Amino acid sequence: MPSWNVEAVRSQFPSLNKTINGRIPVFFDNPAGTQVPLSVIHAISDYFQTINANQGGMFPTSQATDDLVEATRLKLASFLNAPSADEIVIGANMTTLNFALSRALIKTFQPGDEIVVTRMDHDANVAPWLRAAQDFGMNVRWVEFRHEDITLDLGTLEAALNEKTRIVATVHASNAAGTINPVRQIAGMTHAAGALHIVDAVQSAPHVSLDVQSIGCDFLLCSSYKFYGPHAGILWGRHELLSTLPAYKVRPSQDIAPFRWETGTPAFELIAGIGATIDYLASLGDQSVEYRDQLVSAYASFSRYETELVAHLLDVLQSFPKIHIAGITDRARLGERVPTVIFTHEGYTSAEVAEILAAQGIFVWDGNYYAYELMRALDKPDGMVRVGLAHYNTHDEIDRLAEVLTTL
Ligand SMILES: Cc1ncc(COP(=O)(O)O)c(C=O)c1O
Fold first, then answer.
1. Mutation pick for ligand 1 pocket among 122, 172, 180 (CB with most ligand atoms within 8 Å)
2. What class does CATH assign to 6-37+290-406?
3. What is the whole-number distance in angstroms between the Cα of residue 99 and the centre of ligand 1?
4. Alpha carbon distance 62, 54 (integer Å)
5. What's the pTM value of the predicted model, to 2 decimals?
6. Who's near 68: CB < 8 A, 6+ residues apart?
7. Yes or no: is domain 43-281 CATH 3.40.50.620?
8. What percentage of the chain has pLDDT greater than the value 90?
């Protein structure tokens, strides 16, 4: 397995080597969107320079777009280990795709049926189900989390499941505390109750090699702008479900999966960028193996590096008595989290900490980042500071954070 050469990786990202207000910034805002390598930027601009045509025409540029979309779908199928590229739907973003999915799914259920959501999820995997339940007279049940380490309480999931359960919607990795949930186990529990499992993999996709077949869920969603790509969303679903659910579509568009879910004209230039993003990730892995295994080996090497980084970040944060972290801090359990860490400071609001750090060129998030139920359950009306690491961050950048925190 190649060891992680962070400088070689950083050299591929123009934004990581540009000054803002006289210094190179530290990007710790990665859970809100990562920076993009030059190969992806080139793929997007090349699309306009060499192709730029709508799909389905008889002429070469249109056919080139058809080929490009198909090639990207195949790469995404490898990325997710999907059995078929026909199970890959590309859309504007995860939230929009999930609203479309929820509206179609809900029409197959009865009033009085039940939906299970969690208090850990980003609202993009809660609000669509609350809204659908409200519109169609379904009941909602909640899965709670343990406050001491922000892990899902599967006892509350077990208690929520019954013969009326139709949907269980859970996040794979929390966009706040970084917890990785046992989605495989949850898929098993969901199916034992006769329901469908929807996984929000938006925050796991940058850190964990995804495998829809191993997870065993029915739908999984992610967003390429969280894993070094352009602003777009991806929905994977089982082929029989994508083929038969009553998708909302215009009449002349193809009524087969995945096209029946892709309403309107897609952003082809971004689809070019998504393909280049998956190629970028594959290029970080062992080049002597097949494409999917290149991706798996890339994730293995950078997730090891990210675990070292998050251990250093926790060391730094825990050295300040006024800082309080929510989430897994036990060094023996770092495999149960992604490198996204949230904390409060006794002397400052999360917005104040973020502002002080921003003035020193360190970009972090504050507030609730749409982990709305989680912040309400933790009773944090001002939210928490979030430092989210990516595979291009360094020990030195964490030390820069430590220097500023020392001044608080
Ligand atoms: C866990 C999680 N789910 C869903 C979303 C929404 O994704 P999108 O912006 O693609 O709609 C986000 C965005 O931050 C997220 O972190």
1. 122
2. alpha beta
3. 12
4. 6
5. 0.98
6. 47, 51, 268, 271, 272, 275
7. no
8. 99
